[in-house]
Amino acid sequence: QVQLVESGGGLVQPGGSLRLSCVVSRSILNINTMGWYRQAPGKQRELVAVITSGGRTTYVDSVKGRFGISRDNAKNTVYLQMNSLKPEDTAVYLCNVRAGYPLVETTYWGQGTQVTVSS
Prior knowledge:
The structure is a single chain. The chain is mostly beta strands. It contains no helices and 11 strands. Strands 2, 4, 5, 6, 9, 10 and 11 form a 7-stranded mixed sheet that branches. A 4-stranded antiparallel sheet has the order 1-3-8-7, with no helix packed on it.
């Protein structure tokens, strides 16, 4: 029933690293993109990183050089490697999948995993 399951969040000190994982149900066909959003209290939802079916990646400026998105097609999993974490990275991180384009594109969301960067 749950189609996207995230894991890997937690509490980390500034400068530390975390690796988020999102396992995507094989019932989701014709995936166009996989990505990660984040939502901090009182702030707008923000696209952090996205990877297309062709392997192209895009990042929000604030994480460039620190975060890396990747996927493992055999495991149906998308990852977000987060290095040099800053307190401003604190947020709920949400896995996102878009599928079906150009006929009809459907968006899928995970439940979210909390990332807290603090001393």
